[in-house]
Amino acid sequence: MVVGYERPRPPRVPLSVRAGRLLDEIGALIAFSAKTLRLVFQRPFQTREFIQQTDFIASVSVLPAMLVSIPFGAVIALQLGNLTRQLGAESFTGAASALATIREASPIVTALLLAGAAGTAICADLGSRTIREEIDALEVLGISTIQRLVVPRVLGCVVVAMLLNGLVSVVGVVGGYVFNVLVQDGSPGAFVTSFRTIATMQDLILGEVKAAIFGVLTALVACYRGLTVKGGPRAVGDAVNQSVVIAFALLFAVNFVITSVYLQFAGTH
After folding, report:
1. 5 is a domain residue
2. What Gene Ontology cellular-component terms does the record carry (predicted)?
3. CA–CA separation, 249 vs 24, rounded Å?
4. Do residues 200 and 103 lie in contact, with contact meaning Cβ atoms separated by under 8 Å?
5. Residue 189 lies in a domain
6. pTM higher than the cut 0.90
7. Is residue 78 part of a domain?
8. Which of 20, 81, 173, 239 is least enclosed by beta carbons within 10 angstroms?
């Protein structure tokens, strides 16, 4: 290495070019998603692959979801308990914490865990197959990679997301109840009564719908980034990181839209 020599920096890409690439990526992802959703209803359905992927996704997501949901419910109960105490409405602590958990916290926790655990594994698996040219081999044989590999993973994520959301909701509400009663000296009867008075089945349905949509988004992003990898093993790692970032951004944006629409049409009880 020559002393004093500085490697020239790569030329800066103009903003217009980067914006064009971003729009191309968005369009490709939308087209990929549309094709995947269309093939969901076409035969043959890969039952064995679907069962294997569902089992794998559940195995890497259930335990972390349970461990995260307990402190999550406790933190929500702590914050809302202090707020309701300041407002003189301690009897509504149960309803407020439970609704916050079921409507918002549970679907978000479920989605983040799926994107961080299952999504990364899916992207790494498909990315490794792509750089080994296994995907090209399937296409040469006339096998649809989307129907063979993507659809089972998307449906598996949806099933696990809905089940995990129910589990996280129950564990989170119970954790908030225990924390409110034992730590904040709340009334068990007031917690349960306020929850039963204000909460409705619509809140649970909203959480399940969110979880299903988040599961679809997480799986689609992970599969898309895995199947579009170009390069070697380092490119696979970059694709995994990108899939997590993209999934997180989409999840929060879609969550805002769904919640806004729900509150607009269903009201706040």
Report:
1. no
2. ATP-binding cassette (ABC) transporter complex
3. 18
4. no
5. yes
6. no
7. yes
8. 20
